[in-house]
């Protein structure tokens, strides 16, 4: 018992020795220590998520080698049928188990999933390489970079538009609460919020196809380097309908949230005290109630950018937009583990980074919030 007690005492001393510098660091730089702690937590969660994703892909029936074999068999059957109809000779190719084992070993699929995962992490840390697509044999970094720029441009335009218009309309209609225009706007906002997004995309696609006013695809048929000014105008023309669909799908819920928060703030006692002091309604709305409206919106919008990236999958498929959502969809269907993991880790990073950024913004917006206080 004495030995166990001594070991416990030594461990306690070691713990306090390690904890003391961190405690002093938190007292001197509370916000910076909060950011460091959240970054460490983010990397731990990303590590666990990647491990779980590798395990889930291992549980899925078949793998990419089976799909490659099936595609070769299908193409071979089609060519065989053409040869029969044309009177040519029939050719066949037999894939033995030994050949499949060699191909799996070449792709690294013969190892357990945890070994594959740690080899993937080692390659990232040492060579800063996300690996190679198992199907196209192209670098994953190249595939993601070419699609990521398109998705970032589309989703940032949607995010900025939804945020600005939602705040303008939410603050304005909170001052018109109970009027006919407020009731009508609330009804349409609720209708847009409940309207199925995929149905809205299909209806806009049909409208573009029937009227011919807008293209049915959301990307120009030439590259930016050919004619940059023409590409910008053509890009805005092509993405108008996808942006309209994203805007209509997000404006309803966001505007109702801001309007409800503004009405809640306007009923607070400090608003009554400000009005009793003779402060103008404009200052009451914009300098006091509006500032407190930012807190719940910042907290709720932590996942907004990530949800836009995830929700743009259907949009990119319907309008043939070359974004990262469509790339991830194809990678999941083909069980391209390197591409699937890189895409999902990126979306997870967006969620965690959005939460951390929202917490930091709250500290700047609301002086009552302080991080790292002991």
Estimate what percentage of residues fall within beta strands.
under 5%
Distance between the termini: 35 Å
Helix content: over 70%
The sequence of SSEs as H and E is HHHHHHHHHHHHHHH
Gyration radius, rounded:
28 Å
Q: What's the mean pLDDT score?
A: 77
Please outline the major beta sheet. none
Low-confidence stretches: 88-92
Number of helices: 15
Mass-distribution shape: flat
Helix/strand-derived category reads: mainly alpha
Strands, total number: 0
Q: In a few lines, what is going on in this structure?
A:
The protein is 78% helix and 0% strand. The protein is built from 15 helices and no strands.
Explain what this protein looks like in three dimensions.
The chain is mainly alpha-helical and 374 residues long. The protein is 78% helix and 0% strand. The protein has 15 helices and no strands. It has helices at 2-28, 30-59, 64-86, 97-107, 113-127, 140-174, 180-194, 197-211, 228-238, 240-266, 269-276, 281-300, 304-318, 324-334, 337-365. α1 packs across α2. The radius of gyration is 28 Å and the shape is flat. Mean pLDDT is 77; it is low at 88-92.
